[in-house]
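Running low. Any example?
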Amino acid sequence: MEEFYQDFQIISREEAKEIIDILSFGNDNSFYTSKDIKLFAYNIPEDYLLIPLKRNEKLYGFVGLSMPSSYDLQDTILSILYHLTISLENSFIYEHTEKLSCIDPLTGVYNKRKIDEILENEINRALRYNRPLSLLFIDIDHFKNINDMYGHIIGDNFLKELALFLLRNTRNIDSIGRFGGEEFVCILPETDLDSAYKVGEKLRIRWNIERHIVPINVQEKTGTLSIGIANSPIHSQNPRELLILADNALYKAKRERNKTSIFEKF
């Protein structure tokens, strides 16, 4: 049995895509021998078995097993793999549930709960290494007019469009979240106040250039962005307070609309 477990290995779905495509098509075998596999893969030992990890018609991957022909362990192997497949399925379900708990279902970016968690972690890291961190609070100007005049489906599409725009125009180390309604938050690690202002202006201007606006009447266009900025450690080292200060800066920006404002202490 020791030799049996030494030769036990898992083949992932990504690593065995061709195997999955070929062997899972119209075939309900419990396992495949080296003779089956050698149709498209070479250098396979004669005593090799390939066993699909399948449950409820969903294929999670394969287990490859090199086993001397003297072993008569087919039932044992299938029993082990049955329990392994259940464990993998439960793992995928848990991972999917965890992802759903931190993602905004409409836009696909982080939700408020996750943003609060990330901000606390990032501020702690920034303080530990004496690094700056900036926070952008972003709001769509006159968003209520979009919903009132064009309907909530158009409004929802507008929110999705903004989320994709923010993801496309920020760094991998930045975190984007929907804080509520039409308000979004960008957490910018390693970013001082001047750089954060440049980021905010880049986002605001590029959004306008790409014409993410909906005409309401001759005097007014809606859909522009107002952005408020706060920085740690300059303004606050407390996550909740930093959010409040960035929101205060946003409130100032929204008085003029289509503007980027930095929080100012009075």
